[in-house]
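Toll-like receptor 2
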Amino acid sequence: MFHVLWTAWAVGTMIGLSQEGPPDQTSLSCDRAGVCDGRSRSFTSIPSGLTAAVQSLDLSNNKITYVGQGDLQSCVKLRALVLQSNEISTIEKDAFSSLRSLELLDLSDNQLLNLSSSWFQPLSSLKFLNIMKNPYRTLGDVPLFSHLTNLQTLKVGSIHTLLIKRVDFAGLTFLEELEIIASNLQSYEPGSFKSIQNISHLTLHLNQPIFLGEIFGDLLSSVEYLELRDTNLNSFQFSGLSVTETNPLIRKLTFRNALFTDASFNGVLRLLQYASTLVELEFDGCTLNGVGDFEPSDVEEIRDLRNIETITIRRLHIPQFYLFYDLSTVYSLAGSVKRVTVENSKVFLVPCSFSQHLKSLEYLDLSENLMVEEYLKNSACEGSWPSLQVLILRQNHLTSIEETGKILLTLKNLTSLDLSRNSFHSMSETCQWPEKMKSLNLSSTQIHSLTRCVPQTLEVLDVSNNNLNSFSLFLPQLKELYISQNKLNTLPDASFLPVLLVLKISRNTISTFSKEQLDSFHKLKVLEAGGNNFICSCELLSFTQEQPALAEVLIDWPDNYLCDSPSYLRGQRIQDTQLSISECHKTAVLSGVCCVLLLLILLTGGLCHRFHGVWYMKMMWAWLQAKRKPRKTPIRDIHYDAFVSYSEQDSYWVENLMVQELEHFNPPFKLCLHKRDFVPGKWIIDNIIDSIEKSHKTVFVLSENFVRSEWCKYELDFSHFRLFDENNDAVILVLLEPIEKKTIPQRFCKLRRIMNTKTYLEWPRDEALQEGFWVNLRIAIKS
């Protein structure tokens, strides 16, 4: 435990520093907490300039060869010092004298030929010490660690270590973890470990088993967990221990990467009879060079091993497995075992008779083996595993859920079954299961739908990592549902799962969920729905941001809840997402826009009416129409001498005086009058424009009636651009009566300008002057 904590604090913090960027190859980087990272900087000595602020210093993977007395003198608050993987061969006597606060020291993988107790005497606070993988052959002639009263973890030894003596561990009374590399051990002084009264976990790298019996005898009463690594036990022979009185403490024994034969395994069993308190036995990565021919007489003599409750076998290799016996010789030892794990060991069959002897077995894990339905039926025969509650058949070669369930009907007490990572693909409509089944794991089995084959008695169901796109099973007792990594696009219907407490549905294709959906799960305590394709809509954002207690239910909130769409929000946390008012209140915004548009239309209409906007638009249209035609009308197309524009109220003057004086004159003038000469049925705009274009002159008979006349206004409107855009003298203005210029509408800007710049004819009230008026008018029309 202590080693793990230090890894998180001292080493982990330095890794965090390195992730900030590539380190400077020639300098030491320190943060504000006093954690200094000097790994892999090609240092050849301890960097200078270290201060009392340094609390953790990592100088691993450099080329340091020497640690001097003054190198670390100022580091009085240093708590962790890592000098692993350098080339240190010399450490001065008082190099660590100022490090009274040091709790972790790692000198592993260096070139230390001799160890000195003076290095460690000042380190009264030291809790972790690693001096493994140095070329020393012995730990010295005097106790090295007697002053380290707070030491909890010690790692010593290397392939060069040849001797273990009584003095080596003198002064140490308690260790949480002790690891010793003594692969090539040549001498062991009996009683060397007896000075340590209690060791929670001892890891011993021992190649040859020559001293195994003596070491085991010394450790029986002090070690709780013994782990033996890389040991060749093929030649191991055990003749007994010279132990007169023992109070064994050992509870767990692990053989890791060990080699056995049938004979040596018998010896190991005889050795273990001295460990009467042993309850757990583990074999990891071991090889049995035999066929299971264990000596029956030896097995019968071993009674104390019946206290073993847990046996774990992982990655067991048996080269002659095809010749292996039926294990009948160890049946007598199997009766009290409660938990068995045989993982990744190519097991395809557990003999029926062996299964029937496992009467106390409650937990069986046969993961990553070669089990098929045909041989499983033999293993789970009638009377087998009568107490079994948990069966794990993960990653075997099973292909039929229906057949597997039927085979396991013999297991009357089975409550939990793991069939994950088998290739079932499909599921029949109905199945038979043990009546006490409460938990079923069908994850990673490639099933694409769920049927009523799933037992109704389940409280826990795991169907993660399949091809499911819906869930519509009614499971009245289900409390936990694991359905992550499928293709569901919505949460399951709560009415199918009335007592559900835990729902894990992450990494599906769910786009949203609502308060109503969550509230429908009345008893739900835990929901894990991260990693889905969430559409960050206003409804979803409003729901998540208005529920401060949501994190109590969503255990992976907020980091795993990211927007998938809209695209500009993709990858952003839902918790941090904000949408604009226009996106979240489209109806209100649209209504507002429509109101504004209506107001603008009304306002525009009012302004057009007030400032004659309609007139300007009509004039623009008339101007565009006129622009299409030639700017000058050929003389041959002139039909009239003048087009007369006048008010209907002035028609008497025009028709009885003007027409008489001009059309009955010799030679006569031909006038164009709208009443008489406009083409019936023709658009009035075209009539006006055509009449003006076919007339040599245009005479406007101006009066107060003209200004007020709508008809005259239209005639003037549609002739305005054509007449005045050509800048000619085709216009003749005749004033029947005086007109104030201010009464002329502002839109007739050119007309107003002409009246200011050009001479116009004024109708005289005096009859004596009227003859001169007609003469001048005739001259103007002819000009």
